[in-house]
Amino acid sequence: MIDGLAAALEPSRESALPELAGALDAVLAGVPGRVVGHDTFKRGVHRLRLESSAGSRSVVVKRLGLTQARRNELAFERWLPAAGLAGGCPALLGRAAERSGRFMWHVYEDLGDGALATDTIDPARAEAVIRLIARLHARFASHPMLAEARSLGGDLGIAFFDSNLRDAIHGLERLRPSVVAGVTHERSALRDRLAARIESLLGSRAARARAFAAVAGPETLLHGDLWTTNTLVQETPGGLRAALIDWDHAGAGPASYDLSTFLLRFPVRDRHTVFDLYRRAVEPWGWNAPGPPELNLLFDTAECARYANRLSWLALALLEGGNEWVWEKLALVEEWYEALAPVLPDSGRGARAA
Predict the structure, then answer these.
(1) Do the domains 5-109 and 123-353 sit in the same CATH topology, yes or no?
(2) CATH class entry, domain 123-353
(3) Helix residue ranges, H only, the chain
(4) Domain 5-109 has CATH 3.40.50
(5) Model-level pTM?
(6) Residue range 234-277, pLDDT digits in tens
């Protein structure tokens, strides 16, 4: 056991620490070490500052489900290197499976705390991240590796819209008093409103599919969860290094899937500026991104599908005995749908037309 590891992670009630210690031993090449400092970002994600006779180093450890762990491993060790983008993510230094096979620990290179800020944009840092995203999308456009990314990651194109909306309908239809306890009149009304909204969205499927075929462009490798908190910018002797972390939801689909998530993290006033940086960054590869009216429909499709995905999991939680908080979350998803507006609002008619 790495000295001090249990004490550092005990407040977070983490398990499989002997397995994690084994991975850290390998990172330290078998030299005895100890934890001299740590930060907890959230449950299952920690920074550990290690010290040994060979020196000091800092790593980030993350506990992942087996599917998410495999996607990260493929992204870091196979998919990104295939396009010359190995430096676009932290190095995966070690891994260890929990003995019963429930989850894995990953040990990553620590790239610091330089997540891209959204309240006040730093042009140089923003451009470094956007150029990396553009290279990812452009280099993987129609890449042979996409078949593997789709199979072992996810299909995040129009099929994502289809499957998640249908799953949401199936789940909502079961939330009735004969199946779930505590279904009041108000909750029945909420369920019915959500189901009617999903049915209406399914009715727009043909128009959305035509838009995908016409303007979405080639499918590419997608990060799948492109919040700015999953970007890092590190100052190096050679300049700024941008990297993307947390590839748990990676898959294949149109670039608009990633762009909608990324742009929505910025204030409305800055989104056109950020998108223009992306558009210019993909031009050298001969890829002309569609204009805002067409993009808004693609963005709307991705967001509606993601909200439906949330509905599916909440319905399942209720069917498995979930408590009051689940109904509160269902009401929150309805608020998300109500608040959904064009991502690039100056040209929002395309999204609403569908």
Answers:
(1) no
(2) alpha beta
(3) 5-9, 17-27, 66-74, 80-82, 123-139, 146-152, 158-173, 185-203, 205-215, 255-263, 268-282, 292-319, 324-339, 349-353
(4) no
(5) 0.92
(6) 999 999 999 999 999 999 999 999 999 999 999 999 999 999 99
